[in-house]
Design goal:
- The protein is α/β, with parallel strands linked by helices and 393 residues long.
- Helix content is 45%, strand content 15%.
- It contains 15 helices and 13 strands.
- The strands form 2 sheets. The chain has a 7-stranded parallel beta sheet with strand order 3-2-1-4-5-6-7, sandwiched between helices. A 6-stranded parallel beta sheet has the order 10-9-8-11-12-13, with helices on both faces.
- It is globular and about 70 Å long.
């Protein structure tokens, strides 16, 4: 019986929360294993249906998370008598009492574009904070027994950054689980979607942050009006460009002003956050998935959109090409003109859309949460066996 301890206290939004939501059901059904999950307060209720997993709720202020984990988790891991630690939030324990696997999945620490973006926005406090976190993330790769990245492209980037070999274990997807919930979208959301009926609906699934490059997408909208003069175009956002409506310290004011300055408020439909278990209904209502992100590690919505039969228009990142292949049309990540041309190209070619849909459905089947969890357990067993064997002579 192997006891895996998972530190997921950083999982509060975005990819971190998507990860833990998807792996827990598979962890709970893995034979020959015992699992303890440390998570932030308030999430335990969501996972009450998995009695085979033990949960430890920890109420930690985000600013103190790293230092709290370093001082508290080692003792908790010892008391649990865990065999392996899986750290899912980019930071490792400096002195783990058991072999440690680090999941590194935040590319802003290695992104020159992100640091430049912060300087242009005069976000100097955030810039300093990111540099500190990047230093800790880099140290963490050295502290862990092994580091895992969710894509080959990001694994290579981490290796160049740290000089340490990094493994690739793709994140997964489970179409049956993703589409299981039949509950309707909120009435307000349904009303907004009905008002978009008859339009070409572009979908971008993300809360507002800087590295998802919302401004390039917004700047492309008036150009799309010209390219597709005979069609109404609507951009569906799963966020609201309002202060206090998004997780993290990102300020959406510049994006909101840009919408008004460019006169495209009629094209932008701010749906607000959509519960993860209802997202499948939103994908089905869209025509094209679009992402202008300038840095990524995996991008779950790409797999979700392909599995939902949507053609994809994506910024030309190595990660995006690795995930989507020929299921997407790519554009230069800071070019509104290239983005608009790519959308117009896809919208104007039904045959190309059909082919992209076929390819996308096939590619989405390559990603499996069951396979991901099995690979994590296999890696855990390798680390345990290596520790038992002791140092080589």
């Amino acid at each position: 019986m192997m006891h895996l301890f998972i530190n997921s206290t950083a999982a509060s939004a975005g990819g971190g929360l998507t990860y833990i939501r998807n792996v827990i059901p598979h962890l709970a059904t893995t034979p020959g294993s015992r699992v303890t999950v440390a998570m932030s307060g308030g999430l335990r209720e969501e996972f009450r249906a998995f009695p085979g997993v033990e949960f430890v709720e920890m109420k930690i202020p985000p600013a103190r998370r790293f230092w709290y984990e370093q001082s508290t988790l080692p003792g908790l891991i010892r008391r649990c008598r865990a065999d392996v630690l899986l750290s899912t939030g980019n930071f490792a324990l400096r002195n783990s009492p058991v072999p440690q696997i680090l999941l590194s999945r935040n590319s802003i620490y290695t992104s020159a574009d992100f640091y430049r973006d912060l300087r242009l926005r005069h976000e100097y406090r955030y810039l300093l904070d990111t540099h500190v976190r990047a230093w800790l993330a880099k140290k963490s790769v050295h502290w862990a027994d092994t580091t895992v990245a969710p894509s080959k492209a990001f694994a290579a980037e981490l290796c160049r950054w740290t000089g340490i070999p990094v493994r690739t274990i793709h994140h997964g997807f489970d179409y049956e689980a993703f589409t299981r919930d039949p509950s309707s979208l909120a009435a307000e959301v349904e009303g907004k979607l009905r008002n978009a009926d008859g339009s070409l609906k572009l979908l971008f699934v993300s809360h507002y942050n800087y590295y998802r490059n919302f401004e390039t997408l917004i700047r492309a909208l008036p150009l799309l009006r010209k390219h597709l003069a005979s069609r109404s175009v609507k951009l569906l956002l799963t966020c609201k460009l309002l202060a206090g409506e998004n997780p993290g310290g990102y300020h959406p004011g510049a994006a909101a002003r840009l919408v008004n300055e460019l006169g495209v408020s009629d094209m932008v439909i701010q749906l607000g956050a959509i519960p993860y278990y209802r997202l499948h209904q939103l994908y089905r209502r869209a025509d094209i998935y679009v992402t202008p992100a300038y840095t990524e590690t995996f991008a779950h919505p790409l797999v979700e959109s392909m599995a939902s039969g949507l053609p994809v228009v994506a910024s030309d990142l190595a990660v995006h090409r690795e995930i989507c292949g020929d299921a997407a049309v790519y554009f230069q990540r800071f070019s509104p003109e290239a983005l608009a041309r790519a959308v117009a190209q896809v919208a104007g070619s039904p045959e190309a859309c059909k082919q992209m849909t076929v390819v996308g459905l096939e590619r989405s089947r390559r990603f499996s949460w069951r396979a991901h969890v099995d690979a994590i357990f296999e890696l855990s067993r390798t680390l345990i066996d290596s520790k038992a064997a002791g140092p080589a002579n």
